[in-house]
Amino acid sequence: MTLLQHYWPVFIQGFGYTLLASFIALVGSLILGTLFAIMQVSSMKWARVFGDVYVQIFRNIPLLIITLFLYLAVAKVIKMTGFMAGTIGLMLYTSAFVAESVRAGILSIDNGQMEGARANGLSFNQAMRYIVLPQAFRVALPSLGNQFINLVKNSSILAFVGGLDLMYQGNMVAATSFDTFTTYIIIGVFYLVITLPLSYYIQYLERHLKRKA
Hints:
There is one protein chain. The chain is mostly helical. Helices cover 85% and strands 0% of the residues. The chain is built from 9 helices and no strands. Helix 2 packs antiparallel against helix 7 and helix 4 packs across helix 5. The longest helix is centred in the N-terminal third of the chain and has 33 residues.
């Protein structure tokens, strides 16, 4: 408790950066992942190829490599901080897994629903937005929930590029106080503060949607 009291502002600052990076990456990966999932099931060949290439690249390269590439190479052309590089890397990496989850959800919906919507005058985008995607997200919710919890845990990657996140600040505290064991226990508790409510909320959402179905 002495360590926590002494370094409380440092932990809180890192916790704030972790929350902010996780929120930005969550929203961004959901938008990007949905876009690439739609491209993967599109009737246009170039869109399917582009979507597949994007997903395969970012799903099969370690998050650390993506983040370091952004921080060490891209940042020489486009100015960005470690926090920005880490958050963008986290968003790109997670979006590939989100795309796969949403794509599986879309494919689980009967083709007749899309055909019926198109026959009633809806465009492809309108049919996808109003008919297919709401059902696809319901199917994909458990998988998306796991991806978002992993995203929060993976946000510790920011520590490698000076992203000022919880892990980065924790490393600084450990190096200063020489109490490594207690420091990392405190860091673990802070991560639980984010991931446990998120996990329970997703379970609640699943039960709520099942009751509505």
